[in-house]
Write a structure and sequence with these properties.
The structure holds two protein chains of two kinds. Chain A is mainly α. Chain A has one domain: MetI-like fold (Orthogonal Bundle), CATH 1.10.3720. Chain A is built from 13 helices and no strands. By secondary structure, chain B is α/β, with parallel strands linked by helices. Chain B has helices spanning 20-25, 30-37, 66-73, 96-106, 122-126, 128-132, 137-150, 166-179, 196-213, 224-230, 248-253, 258-264, 275-278, 292-302, 322-330, 353-362, 382-390, 402-416, and strands spanning 2-13, 40-51, 55-59, 81-86, 89-90, 107-110, 184-188, 216-221, 233-238, 241-246, 284-286, 306-310, 316-321, 346-347, 367-370, 376-380. Chain B has a six-stranded mixed beta sheet, with helices on both faces. Chain B has a four-stranded antiparallel beta sheet with strand order 2-1-4-5. Chain B is globular. The termini of chain B are far apart. The A-B interface holds A 181, 183-184, 186-194, 197, 201-202, 205-206, 208, 278-281 and B 71, 74, 76, 100-104, 107-109, 111-120, 128-129, 131-133, 160-163, 176, 180, 186.
Chain lengths: 282, 417
C-alpha cells in the first residue's frame, strides 16, 4: 500500500529528475558561479592572510574597540592570540573568508528581496514559505546537490551557508520597512519624494537598526553552518572539528570548537554595535 | 481668490467603491452601506473652498473624515470622485510629475505625531523637502536655518529629534514645512499630541507666525476651542459630510443643526462672541449741526439719559448727558461740543465680550464701538452682554432666588419625608 502510494506521488523521483536536468543543461552556468565565488574567496583569503597574524590581531582588536567597547576589544585581543598560539590562525581566516563571502552574497540577494516583499503582498506570500523551507530543511539534504553542482570544496560550502543564512536578513528587512511609521511615509510623500527617494532617504534609514539585526543573525547562522560545510571539503575550522570527531582527537575538536566560538562572539558584538550605531544618535 | 476648492468630493474605502454610490443617493447611512457593501464612506459629497491667506479649520470627531479630506488635498489619498482644485488646477487629474511639483512647491504638511526622521538632525529634517527637490546644499541649509529661526529653534540644529520635547519636535515639523516656502500649509491635528499648556502656546505662536507670513492654512482638529481660536472660517464635518461652514461667530450664533448645536453648547461664548455681533445702533447727534434742544428731544423720545455725539464724518466725539444738555439749553448757547463727555468707554468690533464684561458693569453708559479710525459703529450695553453670557447656561444651572430655592427645597423634603 505504502509502496503504491509512493509510486503515485514520487516527489523524491521528481527532485532527482530536476537535479539531473539542471546538471545536464546548466553546467556552464554553475561553473561560472563556481569560478566567481572561488575567485572572491581566494582574494579574501589572500587579504586576510597577507599581513602577519599579529598585525591582523591588532587590526581586529582596534576595530572591536572602536566599534563596540573596550571590553570587547580586550576580549578580541586575548581570544585571537589564543587562536594564533593554538595554531589555528590560517584555518580561522579560511572560515572568516567563507563567512564574509556568504554573508556579502546573502546581503546582495537578501536585502533587495526583503525590500520587494515589504512593498508587494504577492511577493511576500511567495517568499515566506520559501524562507521557511530554507531554514528548516536539514542541511545535508541540499549539501549533496550542492556538491553535485559545484564539486567538492569551499564553493558548495558557501552555497549551503547562503541557503541557511539568507532568511533572517530577508525577513528583518521586510519587517523593518513595514514597521516604518505610516506618518513618516506620508511625510516623505507629502514633501514630494519619488518612490526611490522615499526608500533611500526615509524608509531604509528608519529601518536600518532592524535590518542590521538581520545582518547579525545572518552572520551567526553562517558561522554555525561552517562545521557542516567542512564535511564537503570547505576547509577552515569546520574541517578541523570534523577531523577531531572522525579521528577521535577530542583535544583537536575542542580547540577548533573554541576558535569558532571566539570568532562568533567577535563578529556578533561588532555587528551588534554597528546595528546600535545605525539608530538615531550615539 | 480661492486657493483650494473642493467640489463634490467622495472617498469610499473598500473593494468596490462604486457599489456605494446608488445607496448614498438613496440617503442610506454610513453604517447601512458598510453592512450592505462592505465599503466605508469616508467622505460623502464634501464641498468647500479655502480663501487665500486664511486659516481654514476643518473640525470633526474621529471618524468624521477630516483626516481623509486633508489627505485628498495633496493626494496622499486618492479621491474616489470629485474635484480638488489647487489654484484652479484639478489635482485629481494631474500627472505624477505635476503632483510632485505641487507637493514640493505649493503645499507642505505638518503631522500629528511630528513624523520626523529619527536618524537626521533637526537641520537635516528641516531641509528634507528642499533636499528632495534638488536644491543646492548651501542654499537649502540657509533656508532651513531661516525656517528654524522663525519657529524659535536656533541653536538646536545639530540635535536629534529624540532629544527634544514634543512641542519642540512639532516646531521642527513646522520648520520643515515652512522651509519650502509653500503657499499652503496642511496641518493634520498638528497640536493634538501636545499637552494643553504647550498646545496653547503653539496655537499662539502659529497665529503670530501667520500674522507675519500670511500663508493659507488648512488646519484639522477635533477640538472646538482650538478651531474657534485659530480659524478664520470653520468647516464642521460629521460622518464624512460637511455639516456647516462659517466664521466662528456664525457657527456659535447660528448652528446649522442639532449636531453643531450640541457641539457648541459647552463653548465659553464670551471668548468668541465679539462686540460687533451684539452691538446696536446708537441714538446720535451730529456736531456741530445739532444743538442742545435736538439732543434733548431725541433723548426723551428714546427714553435715555445720554446721547452719542459724532461729527459729520461719523467720528465719535463723546456723549452728551441730559442734565448737561438741559443746562446748556437754559444758558441759551448752541455749542454742544462744550459739554461732550469723553469719559465713556470705547472698544473695537473684534473684542470678545468676555473682555468687556467687567467694564460694562462698572460703566453707567453703554460702551461705544469704534472702528480703528475712530468712527462710531454702534453701542454695546450691559444688558446685551449679560443676555449673551446667559445664553450659555442650561436652565438647571441658572441661579434662583432664595424664595424659589426654599420652595423647591421644601418640596424635596416633603418627598423624602
Amino acid at each position: 500500500m505504502f509502496e503504491q502510494m509512493h509510486q503515485i506521488i514520487n516527489i523524491g523521483g521528481w527532485f532527482e529528475t530536476i537535479i539531473n536536468w539542471l546538471m545536464d543543461n546548466l553546467g556552464p552556468f554553475f561553473n561560472a558561479i563556481r569560478e566567481g565565488v572561488n575567485s572572491v574567496l581566494s582574494v579574501l583569503n589572500n587579504i586576510l592572510l597577507f599581513p602577519h597574524p599579529l598585525i591582523m590581531i591588532a587590526i581586529f582588536t582596534a576595530l572591536a574597540w572602536w566599534l563596540a567597547k573596550r571590553g570587547i576589544g580586550i576580549f578580541t585581543l586575548i581570544g585571537m592570540l589564543l587562536i594564533y598560539y593554538m595554531g589555528f590562525w590560517d584555518v580561522t581566516m579560511d572560515t572568516l573568508a567563507l563567512v564574509i563571502t556568504s554573508v556579502v552574497i546573502a546581503l546582495v540577494i537578501g536585502v533587495p528581496i526583503g525590500i520587494w516583499s515589504s512593498k508587494n503582498e504577492m511577493v511576500e506570500r511567495i517568499v515566506r514559505p520559501i524562507l521557511d523551507f530554507m531554514q528548516t530543511l536539514p542541511a545535508f539534504v541540499y549539501l549533496i546537490p550542492a556538491v553535485l553542482f559545484f564539486q567538492l570544496g569551499a564553493v558548495p560550502g558557501v552555497i549551503a551557508t547562503l541557503i541557511f543564512s539568507l532568511p533572517p536578513v530577508v525577513r528583518l528587512t521586510n519587517l523593518g520597512i513595514r514597521q516604518v511609521p505610516v506618518e513618516i511615509k506620508e511625510a516623505a510623500i507629502s514633501f514630494g519624494s519619488t518612490p526611490s527617494q522615499m526608500l533611500f532617504k526615509a524608509e531604509l534609514p528608519v529601518a536600518m537598526p532592524t535590518i542590521m539585526a538581520g545582518v547579525n543573525q545572518t552572520i551567526m547562522l553562517a558561522l554555525s553552518m561552517v562545521v557542516i560545510a567542512g564535511m564537503i571539503g570547505a576547509g577552515g575550522l569546520g574541517n578541523e572539528v570534523l577531523k577531531g570527531i572522525t579521528q577521535l582527537k577530542i583535544g583537536l575538536g575542542f580547540e577548533s570548537g573554541i576558535s569558532i566560538v571566539i570568532l562568533a562572539i567577535f563578529l556578533d558584538r561588532v555587528t551588534q554595535a554597528l546595528a546600535a550605531n545605525s539608530g538615531p544618535e550615539r | 481668490m480661492n486657493v483650494i476648492e473642493v467640489k463634490n468630493l467622495f472617498k469610499i474605502f473598500g473593494e468596490h467603491p462604486n457599489r456605494a454610490f446608488p445607496l448614498l443617493e438613496q440617503g442610506k447611512s454610513k453604517a447601512e452601506i458598510l453592512e450592505k457593501t462592505g465599503n466605508t464612506v469616508a467622505i460623502n459629497n464634501a464641498n468647500f473652498f479655502v480663501k487665500k491667506q486664511e486659516v481654514f479649520v476643518i473640525m470633526g470627531l474621529s471618524g468624521s473624515g477630516k483626516s481623509t479630506v486633508i489627505r485628498c488635498l495633496n493626494r496622499l489619498i486618492e479621491p474616489t470622485r470629485g474635484e480638488v482644485l489647487i489654484d484652479e488646477f484639478d489635482i485629481v487629474k494631474m500627472s505624477r510629475e505635476d503632483i510632485l511639483q505641487t507637493r514640493r512647491k505649493k503645499m507642505s504638511m505638518v503631522f500629528q505625531h511630528f513624523a520626523l526622521l529619527p536618524q537626521r538632525t533637526i537641520l537635516g529634517n528641516a531641509e528634507y523637502g528642499l533636499e528632495i527637490s534638488g536644491v543646492e546644499e548651501e542654499e537649502r541649509r540657509q533656508k532651513a536655518m531661516e525656517a528654524l529661526d522663525q519657529v524659535g529653534l536656533q541653536g538646536y540644529e545639530h540635535q536629534f529629534p529624540s532629544e527634544l520635547s514634543g512641542g519642540m519636535q512639532q516646531r521642527v515639523g513646522l520648520a520643515r514645512a515652512l522651509a519650502n516656502d509653500p503657499e499652503v500649509l496642511l496641518m493634520d491635528e498638528a497640536f493634538s499630541a501636545l499637552d494643553p499648556l504647550i498646545r496653547n502656546q503653539m496655537q499662539d505662536e502659529l497665529l503670530e507666525l501667520q500674522a507675519r507670513m500670511n500663508k493659507t492654512i488648512v488646519f484639522i482638529t477635533h477640538d472646538l476651542d482650538e478651531a474657534l481660536k485659530l480659524g478664520d472660517r470653520i468647516c464642521i464635518m460629521k460622518d464624512g459630510a460637511v455639516v456647516q461652514t462659517g466664521t466662528p461667530e456664525e457657527i456659535l450664533t447660528e448652528p446649522a443643526d442639532d449636531y453643531v448645536k450640541a457641539f457648541v453648547q459647552n463653548v465659553d461664548r464670551t471668548k468668541v462672541i465679539t462686540a460687533s455681533s451684539i452691538m446696536r445702533k446708537a441714538t446720535m447727534v451730529t456736531l456741530p449741526k445739532d444743538g442742545p434742544n435736538v439732543a434733548i428731544r431725541r433723548m426723551e423720545q428714546a427714553g435715555i439719559s445720554a446721547i452719542y455725539a459724532i461729527d459729520s464724518e461719523r467720528y465719535f466725539k463723546g456723549i452728551i448727558r441730559i442734565d448737561d444738555a438741559v443746562k446748556l439749553s437754559r444758558s441759551k448757547t448752541d455749542d454742544l461740543s462744550s459739554i461732550t463727555f469723553d469719559g465713556v468707554y470705547t472698544t473695537t468690533p473684534d473684542t470678545p465680550i468676555g473682555n468687556l464684561l467687567g467694564w460694562a458693569i462698572e460703566s453707567s453708559y453703554p460702551m461705544a464701538v469704534q472702528d480703528e479710525t475712530g468712527k462710531l459703529l454702534g453701542i454695546v450695553d450691559r444688558s446685551a452682554i449679560m443676555a449673551e453670557v446667559n445664553n450659555n447656561f442650561d436652565e438647571e444651572d441658572m441661579p434662583v432666588t432664595l424664595k424659589e430655592w426654599e420652595a423647591n427645597g421644601s418640596e424635596l423634603t416633603e418627598q423624602e419625608g
